[in-house]
């Protein structure tokens, strides 16, 4: 490139126009470079062959060029005033954040003002200005008035969007199934005491509704550990360890809280021994045991129950050889009374389950291994088995008499579950089952009526299903059903006294407590009776909505009309 | 009762996610400036500006339908939450609540 040479006149842009500079007045030949490097011209007046150059005044034209425009892009976007542009905003958002350069929090987002006001400079609010506003009277007036309104609006929680068809529930996560009727609340197991054992029995405490006792059989992987374990679990607290740990030498097949002795837990074992644990003692072993003699039981005891009243009660136990003993809890050294349950004096009933109707201490029903169900009574000239009910094709695993209280007496009804994949509904006035529920495809291990709902019962089977049947809804399929993860065999089902929770014991030593989401209580028409009962028995807060008499419980040929009350 | 205490009380209500007080004046071009807020700065500024425009539009709608009428309260219910706006001549009180919490 051409090095710049000092010339007389500073090269102006005008010179590029081809302006010729005036030659020096002295006449000396000078050489000067044309400032345009692409053309070098040597002006010389002694150029051979050229004559004198004629010089004239040149006209200077002034041209003004504006400075070169610097194109720059600002990083802010203006949220447009026009509503049509709102969709574009979402795309633009990722490209450019909508905040101004935030050095101080007082800086005003200038871009946010309407575009019509572009000319006005953005006004910043300093902290002092803000404080001033906050303390001004008009602000206080505004705030006082409007905060009141907002607080009222905030506290209203009316969900106007609720869809009774349940369609909007389908969009939610898959855990909501069957209309959110059954949901897992707690799961209890203990690494040392319940793992590798099967839950053989469950019972809720009559005195403390949050306590649940579970009995377990032996742990084959740990032969040195006690064969029989009973754990008392607590629903009230979040801790995952048992409240009490009890054990004994023989596998516990049945367990119950002693109804009128809140500190005692009764267990029936595989060896035939009945054991009594006391939570007042510091021992984990039983404080009392029945003798292993022919006077007591020599076969596994699958049923233990305390029946009677505070002043006159007995512990009833039945073993699989058909022997029924009644004991006093103060003295377990010998039974107060014993009875052989034999059908027609020849066939001893191999009893697997028993149930007493509500309020009855004399008559009861038992289910046996050969599939037959018997009614029996404890006292009187005809003590022992009264009648046989045949219908099941496999061992009866569970039996339960109807116990829901109410003005209509359903105590003649009972349900049974069996290995023959069915649950059957019976009336003790009828030798044949009233109805057979055949939705299961595996052994049904246990069944229990709801303590508060006369048409509801739960059953569990060997592939992890917990089914709730509502006879008012459907007798073909369960109203609600849930499958336990891993499909373990569910051995036991027990409703809590509130009727809102169900405890299930499985073959892996786990006790699962499910909450029943929606319960429609069924009551006869007398509004006053159920208002009273509900407020006495239902945990607050509740709201009773009266509906028209809607459902009917059909049993044999009688139709019972009842009014439905929804408690929400 | 002081402004601070009231704001604290509102904030302690079930599901309240944030409270913003915004300056409403349109003639002065500091409209939509948050005066007090419980949210972080960027969100506050975002909400303040957007809601300001929304309220202006809502108010003009109400006024156009009936010039004697005026906007008193605005509730924007969305899938995830609810924005309640109590507008005034000079200021707006905005509360964002998640009612399912």
TrEMBL record, chain A:
SUPFAM superfamilies: WD40 repeat-like
Composition skew (Basic and acidic residues), residue ranges: 103-113
Keyword Endoplasmic reticulum among UniProt keywords: no
Domain of life of the source: Eukaryota
Regions annotated as coiled coil: none
Annotated compartments: Cytoplasm, Cytoskeleton
Pfam (any one): Dynein_IC2
Keywords: Cytoplasm, Cytoskeleton, Repeat, WD repeat
GO CC aspect terms: cytoplasmic dynein complex
An example Gene Ontology biological process: transport along microtubule
Record bears the keyword Transport: no
Biased composition (Acidic residues): 86-96
Gene Ontology terms for molecular function: dynein heavy chain binding; dynein light chain binding
Region (Disordered): 1-44, 69-128
Classification via InterPro entries: DYNC1I1/DYNC1I2, Dynein_IC, WD40/YVTN_repeat-like_dom_sf, WD40_repeat_dom_sf, WD40_rpt
Family: Belongs to the dynein intermediate chain family.
Name this protein carries in UniProt: Dynein cytoplasmic 1 intermediate chain 2
Automatic annotation (TrEMBL), chain B:
GO (cellular component) term, any one: cytoplasm
Annotated signal peptide: none
Coiled-coil intervals, chain numbering: none
UniProt GO BP: microtubule-based movement
A Pfam match: Robl_LC7
SUPFAM superfamilies: Roadblock/LC7 domain (SSF103196)
InterPro entries noted in UniProt: DYNLRB1/2 (IPR016561), Roadblock/LAMTOR2_dom (IPR004942)
Keywords, sorted A to Z: Cytoplasm, Cytoskeleton, Dynein, Microtubule, Motor protein, Transport
Ranges where the Roadblock/LAMTOR2 domain occurs: 3-97
GO molecular function: dynein intermediate chain binding
Protein location: Cytoplasm, Cytoskeleton
Task of the protein: Acts as one of several non-catalytic accessory components of the cytoplasmic dynein 1 complex that are thought to be involved in linking dynein to cargos and to adapter proteins that regulate dynein function. Cytoplasmic dynein 1 acts as a motor for the intracellular retrograde motility of vesicles and organelles along microtubules.
Protein family according to the UniProt entry: Belongs to the GAMAD family.
Protein name: Dynein light chain roadblock
Origin species: Denticeps clupeoides
Gene: DYNLRB1
